[in-house]
From TrEMBL, chains A, B:
It comes from Fontimonas thermophila. This is 2-hydroxychromene-2-carboxylate isomerase. It comes from the Bacteria. GO terms for molecular function: 2-hydroxychromene-2-carboxylate isomerase activity; glutathione peroxidase activity; glutathione transferase activity. Its EC number is 5.99.1.4. The active site is at S14. It catalyses: 2-hydroxychromene-2-carboxylate = (3E)-4-(2-hydroxyphenyl)-2-oxobut-3-enoate.
Amino acid sequence: MAGCCLEFWFEFASSYSYPAALRIEQLARSAGVRVLWRPFLLGPLFQAQGYASSPFVQFPAKGRYMWRDIERICARTGIPFRKPSAFPRTSVLGARIACAFQDEPWVPRFVCALFTANFAHDRDIGDDRVVADCLTACGESAPARIAAVQTDPLKSRLRTQTERAAALGLFGAPSFLVDGELFWGNDRLEDALAWARGEHPLQR
Amino acid sequence: MAGCCLEFWFEFASSYSYPAALRIEQLARSAGVRVLWRPFLLGPLFQAQGYASSPFVQFPAKGRYMWRDIERICARTGIPFRKPSAFPRTSVLGARIACAFQDEPWVPRFVCALFTANFAHDRDIGDDRVVADCLTACGESAPARIAAVQTDPLKSRLRTQTERAAALGLFGAPSFLVDGELFWGNDRLEDALAWARGEHPLQR
């Protein structure tokens, strides 16, 4: 099957990345599609587009709507949700770790744990201790993983990956990339998986 | 059944309003939900939010993505599509007519004809003759309908309705409103219909 790999581009501060992260493994497994987890930072992409902040902060009506939409999505898909008391949260340390080790088997669990800390438990994922807790919960050595991304070459991988995201034409998160075909938004995950299976009418 | 009415808020210049308009009647009929067609103008809402133009014009990466996404959606749902050579197009005359007569039975056909002119036949819907052609195709008298919205009280209904859209918290199109619950985007049409049927987990 052509293109049975899907790149999942996400940002820990991004509200719609949360249900995507929690849904993707089961859906991809059912579809027979391999997922490549690709964390990046939205901030530089937003700045390059001229946004002063998250569009959900800059445009309050859109922000109010987004939280209700997330609540509905989580209720419908059985994902726990509590509106974070701060938004968007700093996500650099977690993203550096997820990026530095992105193809290791424990990373999906770490990613889901950190997303859940932010969007279900209202914990500050910008706090090293919260990141450490999520690493520990995955059976990883928190001090070792955190220390590893304090210096290059691992530290700068996130910046390089964020630059690649911009070069690929990404402008938001979550995004899914299949054979150069871009899908944006949690609500496009099923479409992206269908594309990875070659099942979209435009592919026939 | 509580709330089995759905307000469909749309703008003729809006790309994602197009598949929503062409899909809604059949889906709503199957769901047993009555649709209230509610045209409005996005321009004043975008201006109030601080956008200089359509977000798809202001943010080019998002605009490029949108056209491909629309192409995929139309292909998947069997809706004809040709990328308009101008975007966004002036939509005031068509919107004034659709608004002035919004609850008359010919309006859904007129709305779909005008959307199709813009997004499948690349016709300038800002041109009175294109609007007239769509009225004629619906069996309506084009001169009479066009003349009717040149003066008050019918002319100003669109402005009043656009102000109501802003007051309701709308910020984009298409939007669906069910018992005060807001859904934004063509991809939320099915969710809005489920809500109108009282089938969402948050309603139980």
